[in-house]
Amino acid sequence: MLRIITDFDGPLVDVSERYYQVYRFCLAQIGRPEQAITCLDKSTFWALKRARVPETEVGRRSGLSEEQARVFSQLRQATVHTHPYFEFDQLQPGVIALLGHLRDQGIDLAVLTMRRQSELAFALNQFGLGELFTEERRFCLPEPYQKTRDDLDKPLLMAQALQILPPAATTWMVGDTEADLVAAQIHGLPVVAVLNGIRDRERLATYQPVQIVDDLEAAVTWIAAVMGEALAQKTGDQPQAQEDCQAGEAVLG
Q1: Contact, 25 vs 130, CB < 8 A?
Q2: Which of 38, 107, 175, 192 is deepest in the core (most CB within 10 A)?
Q3: What confidence score (pLDDT) does residue 146 get?
Q4: Residue 160 in contact with residue 138, Cβ under 8 Å?
Q5: d(CA 62, CA 69)
Q6: Which of 183, 177, 184, 181 is nearest to 154 (CA)?
Q7: What is the per-residue pLDDT across 184-193, written as a single tens digit (0 to 9) for each?
Q8: How far apart are CA 167 and CA 1, in angstroms?
Q9: Residues contacting 152, CB < 8 A, separation 6+
Q10: Which residues are bridge partners to 213 per DSSP?
Q11: pLDDT in tens, 10-60
């Protein structure tokens, strides 16, 4: 059995508009009426976010003072994962059809996200993804969990997922952040990074994923190609080779 574990925000959902609307809200809250505040356009803001420019620097570039930028950063962190801003999220193009195809072909799907249980449940209902990721295939933070850093917390979620999920012949991770890559690598999983999420190519390349592609569809197609190449190189373990072949064919459809 082939398993694909994917992050939620990024590979499945475009969060750029939510982040931009929160940026605008925080800027309006912190700036004073007499200040010359410059609201960055969305493309500029998102490029800075994807390059992981510090939030305080984003605030300063928008015309805030040093102290205001610090408060701006705190307010943004407290606001970005709240309602009603989740309603700005948009499903990535073609995701439902792709996930449905993978499920129908026997690919085991799981989602691993830093969202809390209520946040993930809201989004799954919002986008009609509940049937594609059943409860035993959802790995997220409990409500009272005190976050530390994503690159520390997400490996713990991955450990939980690997302990609970049934064995799979091959497991791949697809993600768009440093935390996704670290979580997979710590647990010895190959990981493909996608570019339609919250980090740019330069940031992702620093963590050396096995490949960087545009989106989830490109990721699963690339995984299928790799599995096909691995099959061609096998000289023993014929049952495993046959299973790899079937899994690769299923991904490609």
Answers
A1: no
A2: 175
A3: 87
A4: no
A5: 9
A6: 183
A7: 999 999 999 9
A8: 8
A9: none
A10: 194
A11: 999 999 999 999 999 999 999 999 999 999 999 999 999 999 999 999 999
The answer to whether residue 240 scores a pLDDT higher than 70 is no
Pairing state of beta strands 90-91 and 13-14?
Answer: antiparallel
CB 157 within 8 A of CB 7: no
Instruction: With CA atoms as reference, report the closest residue to 232 among 221, 250, 244.
Output: 244
d(CA 132, CA 12): 12
Q: Which tokens in the block code for residue 29?
A: 């809250």
Going by DSSP bridges, is the β-strand pair 108-116/138-141 parallel, antiparallel, or unpaired? parallel
For range 127-156, the mean pLDDT: 93
Q: Give me the helix-helix angle, 150-164 and 178-186, nearest 10°.
A: 50
Question: Of 182, 203, 200, nearest to 191 (Cα)?
Answer: 182
CA–CA distance, 185 with 147 (Å, rounded to integer): 21
